[in-house]
Design goal:
This protein has helices at residues 2-10, 14-36, 39-56, 66-85, 120-137, 141-152, 157-163, 168-189. It has 193 residues and is mainly α.
């Protein structure tokens, strides 16, 4: 199905291109938001990713997967925007007491859902997720990107090495270092030695 969409989009079929956009937009935006930690920068980078992706479809060859090809474009756009903004690391400090970090669930009509009391298990899980996101935000960019591409996007280390233009061993090393650093930060935050 995706292969057919790509082939039709390569021939100029705008409906096929729109379907590819719909299929990948949320994932690309989410990835770029995690990379830039800024909604406007992520939107700009996502828009540029799809512009370059659709424009470059005529040159796309089935070397690897379309997903990894598109994520490579997104990765490069994210780095370009970060460089332009002179932000190589996320600048926003994560404060566990900051209510701005609380996600508000929305109904399909766009209105916020009524908040319900959270069980202890849900509260603990949310706190653990905040600690993970805070640790992720403090990682060096290249380590953070490996974690996001592997954990959040489910890409293989082969795909990650293609996207980041490095060897598989380098990708694995960055993942290992990232996990080690994150564990240390989370343990330190929890008061463990």
């Amino acid at each position: 199905m995706e292969k057919e969409l790509i082939q039709r989009a390569q021939k100029g079929n705008t409906i096929a291109a729109e379907q590819l956009y719909a299929r990948y937009h949320n994932r690309i935006f989410s990835y770029l938001w995690r990379m830039t930690q800024n909604r406007l920068l992520a939107e700009d980078a996502a828009q540029e990713t799809f512009f370059k992706g659709i424009k470059g479809l005529k040159n796309y060859r089935e070397k690897g997967t379309f997903k990894s090809w598109l994520f490579k474009i997104a990765y490069n756009e994210g780095l370009r925007i970060l460089k332009k903004e002179r932000k190589y690391f996320w600048q926003k400090p994560v404060n566990e007491n900051d209510n701005e970090n609380i996600e508000v669930p929305w109904q399909s009509d766009g209105s916020p859902m009524n908040p319900t009391p959270l069980s202890d298990d849900v509260m603990i899980e949310k706190e653990q997720q905040r600690a993970m996101e805070a640790a992720l935000a403090r990682l060096p960019v290249k380590e953070r990107q490996v974690v996001v591409l592997r954990i959040h996007e489910g890409l293989s280390f082969q795909e990650i090495s293609t996207i980041m233009n490095c060897s598989i061993n380098t990708s694995l090393g960055r993942m290992h270092n990232a996990v080690r650093r994150m564990k240390k930060m989370i343990n330190k935050g929890a008061g463990q030695p």
